[in-house]
């Protein structure tokens, strides 16, 4: 399926209907998640700040998924020279940066009342997510700084692939080091530690955020493919005239 | 309603809304601009009326 989507015409055909479907899914899931999440009872320890979980955790999940998507697209572009993959990689970066920024800001707003601090440089989870944010920004800056688009793409793809090592660091940071950040409490052997009243809206919001990323990613990739097509037509006109 | 935590909760939801608003608006603007630019160029090419600025 991935090989078939490497064809720009096939990708444009599939994404034309898939993007609106994902957008509708996102809207429905987020609406349901907010409806349930804003009505949850206060946590016995965290009070109403537990409601921040419904925007912080999905943002963090989506940020990591966006980087995984960036890395996968970069791999297919670098190894198989799929132009659609390169367009997809370029399209994913700003979205990933936005989700990561949202995760950092909402996490800080959660940490201040709970931990008594906006930020902790000694916390491995916080620092590794900050590194993720800087990787997205670095990718965008690297692509923009090199005039030759092909060279820019290759350099950025290598950066993206190297940065993949940060994903398991983020995931396992709460296990490997002593941190302020809460340990794994959702996807763990033995089942989730979170009560269903909180888990249900969390899963709905997580699904909604992922669907939103998918929809936006497809639209941005379509725009990038059109931009490259327009550039090719302009060059052809300039040479053929 | 949320007492002393209201500013943190509302701040978090406000920041999330701002991030989504930027993503959606920027994506739609880029998508529309790219589609219109390509349509103009394809129309010009099919009509044989391509205007290119020459040095």
Characterization of this structure:
- The complex is a heterodimer of chains A (241) and B (55).
- Chain A is an all-alpha fold.
- The longest helix of chain A has 45 residues, at 196-240.
- Chain A is built from 8 helices and no strands.
- Chain B is mostly helical.
- Chain B has 1 helix and no strands.
- Chain B has one helix at residues 6-47.
- The longest helix of chain B has 42 residues, at 6-47.
- Chain B is rod-shaped.
- The A-B interface holds A 47-49, 51-52, 55-56, 59, 94-95, 98-99, 101-102, 105-106, 109-110, 112-113, 212, 216, 219-220, 222-224, 226-227, 229-230, 233-234, 237-238, 241 and B 1-6, 8-9, 11-13, 15-16, 19-20, 22-24, 26-28, 30-31, 33-35, 37-38, 41-42, 44-45, 50, 52, 54.
Q: Count of DSSP helices of chain A?
A: 8
Q: Which structural class matches the secondary elements of chain A?
A: mainly alpha
- Total of helices of chain B: 1
Give a quick account of the main beta sheet of chain A: strands, pairing sense, barrel closure: none
Q: Span from first to last CA of chain A?
A: 39 Å
Shape field of chain B: rod-shaped
Q: Please identify the structural class of chain B as seen in this structure.
A: mainly alpha
How many extended strands of chain A?
Answer: 0
Q: Which runs of chain A of at least 5 residues are low in confidence (pLDDT < 50)?
A: none
Low-confidence runs of at least 5 consecutive residues of chain B: none
What is the residue-averaged pLDDT of chain B?
A: 86
- Strand proportion of chain A, as a percent range, falls in under 5%
Give the SSE order of chain A as H and E letters.
HHHHHHHH
Give the averaged pLDDT of chain A, no decimals.
Answer: 92
Gyration radius from CA atoms of chain A, angstroms: 20 Å
The share of residues in helices of chain B is over 70%
Largest sheet of chain B: none
Q: Regarding quaternary structure, how should these chains be classified?
A: heterodimer
Largest interface: A-B, 36 and 35 residues
**Fraction of residues of chain A in helices?**
over 70%
Radius of gyration of chain B: 22 Å
């Amino acid at each position: 399926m991935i090989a078939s989507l490497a064809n720009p015409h096939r990708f444009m055909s599939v994404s034309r209907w898939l993007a609106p479907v994902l957008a509708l899914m996102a809207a429905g899931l987020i609406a349901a998640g907010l409806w349930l999440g804003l009505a949850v009872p206060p946590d016995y320890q965290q009070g109403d700040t537990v409601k921040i979980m419904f925007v912080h955790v999905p943002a963090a999940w989506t940020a990591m998924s966006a980087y995984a998507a960036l890395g996968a697209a970069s791999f297919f572009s670098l190894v198989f020279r799929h132009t659609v993959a390169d367009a997809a990689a370029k399209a994913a970066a700003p979205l990933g940066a936005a989700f990561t920024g949202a995760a950092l800001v909402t996490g800080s707003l959660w940490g201040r009342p709970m931990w008594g601090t906006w930020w902790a440089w000694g916390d491995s989870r916080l620092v590794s997510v900050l590194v993720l944010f800087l990787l997205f920004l670095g990718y965008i800056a690297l692509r923009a700084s090199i005039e030759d688009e092909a060279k820019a793409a290759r350099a950025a793809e290598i950066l993206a692939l190297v940065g993949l090592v940060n994903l398991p660091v983020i995931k396992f940071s709460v296990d490997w080091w002593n941190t302020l950040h809460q340990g794994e409490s959702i996807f763990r052997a033995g089942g989730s530690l979170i009560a269903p009243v909180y888990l249900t809206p969390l899963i709905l919001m997580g699904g909604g955020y992922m669907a939103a990323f998918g929809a936006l990613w497809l639209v941005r990739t379509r725009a990038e493919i059109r931009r490259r097509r327009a550039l090719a037509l302009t060059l052809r006109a300039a040479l053929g005239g | 309603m949320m007492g002393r935590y209201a500013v943190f909760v509302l701040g978090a939801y406000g920041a999330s809304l701002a991030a989504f608003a930027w993503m959606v608006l920027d994506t739609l603007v880029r998508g529309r601009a790219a589609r219109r630019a390509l349509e103009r160029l394809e129309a010009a090419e099919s009509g044989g009326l391509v205007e290119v600025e020459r040095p």
